[in-house]
Amino acid sequence: WCENQIRPIAIGRNNWLFAGSLRAGRRAAAAMSLIQSAKLNGHDPYAYLKDVLTRLPTQPASRLEELLPHRWQPSLQA
Questions:
Q1: Are 11 and 21 in contact (CB under 8 A)?
Q2: DSSP string of 3-68, one letter each residue
Q3: Exposed end of the chain (fewer CB within 10 Å): N or C?
């Protein structure tokens, strides 16, 4: 079980060396963190990211934490 859990990290390790730049690597790490956090909170990562990226442009800055995986609730428009 443990081996299967860390396999994507071990395989990806070599691929992540070619992110392009330090900035791109940091962005990839942030995206992967959001995806893993969504999974850990029982959300479908695709549905989570689709909803968050749709709502983000109109979300007030004072309420951005509502879009974090541990506080996220799907929008009613889905």
A1: no
A2: HHHHHHHHHHHHHHTTSSSHHHHHHHHHHHHHHHHHHHTT--HHHHHHHHHHHGGGS-GGGGGGGS
A3: N
